[in-house]
Amino acid sequence: MEEASAAVVVDVRGIVTGWSEGARRLTGHPAEEAVGRAVTELLAEDAPSAAPPVPSGIVVLRHRAGHPVPLRVTVTPLTGPSDTPAGYVLVAEPPGAAESSLAGQAFQQASMAMSVFDTEQRYLRLNDASCRAMGTTEEELVGRPYLDTGEAAGHQRGFQWYLRRVVETGEPVHYETLGRAPSGKRFHAWSVEMWPVRDPSGRLLGTALAAFDSTEQHRGRQRLALLNEAATGIGTTLDVVRTAEELVEFLVPTFADFAAVDLLDWVLGTHEPPALTDAEIVLRRVAHGSATQGSPAGAVHLGGTDVYPPASPPARALREGRPVLGRAGEPEFDRWLGGRGAPAPPDRSRRAPIHSLLAVPLRARGTTLGVAVAVRNLFPDPYAADDAVLAEELASRAAVCVDNARRFARERSTALALQHSLLPKGLPGQAAVEVAHRYLPSGSEAGIGGDWFDVIPLSGSRVALVVGDVVGHGIPSTATMGRLCTAVRTLADVDLPPDELLTHLDDLVIHLASDDGDEAAELGATCLYAVYDPVSRRLTAATAGHPPPAVVLPDGTCRLLRLSAGPPLGVGGLPFEATELQLPEGSVVALYTDGLVESRDRDVDHATGELCRALTVPAASLDALCDSVLKAVLPEEPGDDVALLLACTRALGAGQVATKEVPPDPAEVAAARQWAVERLTAWGLDEFAFVTELVVSELVTNAIRYGTPPVHLRLIRDRALICEVSDGSATSPHMRRANAYDEGGRGLLLVAQLTQRWGSRQTGTGKTIWAEQSLSAV
């Protein structure tokens, strides 16, 4: 035995039968005084009445000189024949004595915390790492139950439960736990291994454990999990404010007790980013949140702005483009934080001071958008360099999402402004139809589509109703929509029939697609073009891959028009066919884009049926009918743009239209003029007689001289006085500048000067020349 150790042998009654020289040195008692006595008589304190007579752990003996001697005792039972108890061997040494054996030194110096407990969960041995974790010495812990050595926290009760389970089952246990060690306030993760300790006979003597501090590994897994969740949880919408809120939700309470996102004002608008300077920086608060309500509270209200001095962590983070740490005790940090003036929580006694702050810039694609600020006041650990790396990664992902949302908002705003500039502001006055319309831009992430509609006045009081949809979304589709809308107006001015107009429009789309190369597929479009004549009350329509219009008759019945299905624009090589039908006065024609009735989760036939039912519901006005149709048919969040155009037909009565067939004889021109003057007198329009005589004379003369029979003269009294002359020739006239000595060539020039507008259109049997005089002053 070493002189610093003692060995004592006692029998089953607790009588000393063996005494080593080390025992004499530690206690002062020679062997002749100790052998034969009860070992408990040598103790300075009463021992518990249980076997063995002296418990393992710290035991205080009475020295022969009278002073107490604390010793660390290890009790080992002895067995006799047939495994009967034969006594105990007590090995004692001073509590602070250094381990002498290699195994003992390895135990004592192990990097992981190791402890030994008896079957009652009392400490028997602890190594240095375990003492550091417990924040005390081995002498203070040996012999004491585990729960008496620290706070009875939940993870500590679980620890004792596992100790007891090992004793009860005799099986080893491995588990992981998270909690604060008694030696500090920081949270630690522990990987714990417990196993039973047995004597050679297999009897359970106690429990040994080894606890590995896996805090860094645990935090690493947490960071990876947080980044993985952030990849799917931040940027779920293309909304700047919602993206900022999602970042705050990820930071609090896992990473921060309080977090805020402040953005530069230009991010929320459409302006270009200004250069950052060394002066004060103005930021707008878009999101913030606290782990506990009001502690800490935000010094800036949501939507409000704040001025950050150049030395503040947020301003430095923005200017330097890197995370900035701030801690209590730093002069600049304390001065800036002291001037923030954050409101106190209702219960001031529960408010903990802010001890650590981390400001991270939000940068995406080389552009600084704002700053995210994370604050700790309840969380015990201050922010460190690895926290800055994690926050920078989260902020980087959030910044890309914020920038995407900003770019989407800007593109949406541009596309919407462009589309509104192209759509008709106020529909022109005409008598053929009463119209109402609605356009609802898509709120989906795909962006604004290329839906459009138009109402185009034509000659002879007719009107063209147009609705179309360009494939795709965003500015390219809107630009293509503008091209097609302009082309339709140009072709309508030529007064082409619907099927011919769509043929020309189809050629245009093919040319545009060939000019754009690989983007040809994006230039596909659908279109419906219809012409209504209030004189004949005929509607002529043709479609290029567009949904058919619905018609509500005056008796309240509604049906879809059966049109010949033409291919979408841009396909080429296939004909378009026009369909004609006569409509009673007061019929309502509904033209719409596919966004009204088509979506992924709706049946088209069912939605079309809902549209027809909604159109038959009585409404106070055409505008009110538009609103009720959209309310009844549209889902809560339409996935595509929606255009709806309603037109209620009118008819020109027999008293507003007069027709005369003119024999192909120049002598009949005078009779035609006289007939026209008589019609004007009957209509009370004598003041227009002079100009009308000149127009009739010129147009009828040209038809007789250059056209082919039959020749018809027609006067229409609408919002304008319209004079039309038709003949069987397809040759259209044109104005020319007559020379001084020419006998003709001035007629059409005179007509153009005297009337508001004039023109010609092709018909199935020839052509019609027309001229209009405004009646607005009448």
Describe this protein's structure:
This protein has 778 residues and is of the alpha+beta class. The protein is built from 18 helices and 32 strands. The protein has a six-stranded antiparallel sheet with strand order 13-12-11-16-15-14, sandwiched between helices. Strands 18, 19, 20, 21, 24 and 25 form a six-stranded mixed sheet that branches. Strands 2-1-5-4-3 form a five-stranded antiparallel sheet. A hairpin with a 5-residue loop joins β4 and β5. α7 packs parallel to α11 (385-422) and α14 (604-615) runs antiparallel to α15 (622-633). The longest helix is centred in the middle third of the chain and has 38 residues, at 385-422. The radius of gyration is 48 Å and the shape is rod-shaped. The termini are far apart. The model is unreliable at 343-349 and 738-744 (pLDDT under 50).
Please report the number of helical segments: 18
Task: Name the shape in a single word.
Answer: rod-shaped
Number of strands: 32
Rounded radius of gyration (Å): 48 Å
Q: Indicate the low-confidence ranges by residue numbers.
A: 343-349, 738-744
Strand order of the largest sheet: 13-12-11-16-15-14
Distance from first to last alpha carbon? 133 Å
Oligomer: single chain
Kindly state the percentage of residues in helix. Answer: 25-40%
Task: Determine the structural class based on helices, strands and strand pairing.
Answer: alpha+beta
Average pLDDT, to the nearest integer? 83
| Percentage of β-strand residues | 25-35%
Largest sheet: 6 strands, antiparallel
